[in-house]
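Human:
Take a look at this sequence-structure pair and walk me through the tokens.
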Amino acid sequence: MKEETIAFMVGDHIDTEYTSLCGYVHCDYRDLVRVFGPPLEENWDFKSTHHWFIKIVPHGPVMHIYNWMNGPVIGTSITSITRWNVGGKEEAPLEYLEKILDFHDTDAQVIPYSIGKLDTSDKFFKLELSEKDQRIQKAISAMLRD
């Protein structure tokens, strides 16, 4: 079996605008630094402090790995974080991320973020929520009304 080579760039020059949460990577901070180098340390609205902007080259997706409401944001060490958010424009970055982390012999686990599934059969995309997610959505709506 031929091993696939995945080339990537890391840096703050990579445009990750319009990306959103597409999954999580469960791993140690040290693994991310070993694979992607030191993060950009920038405080975004007191919600996120450490960021990696990654592009699969030459024509692959972009992704943004970052902490969200944990670590230094809440007064704990960045090395205490084991769940990192992954932003992208689709779930494709997760497949690449998983291969990159596997190649570097990390114990990372990549998990897609899915509140529901997209139905693309219509002209417009519709989000179909599971029964559990519908109950959660109703409970949140009720709390907001009160």
About this structure: The longest helix spans residues 131-145.
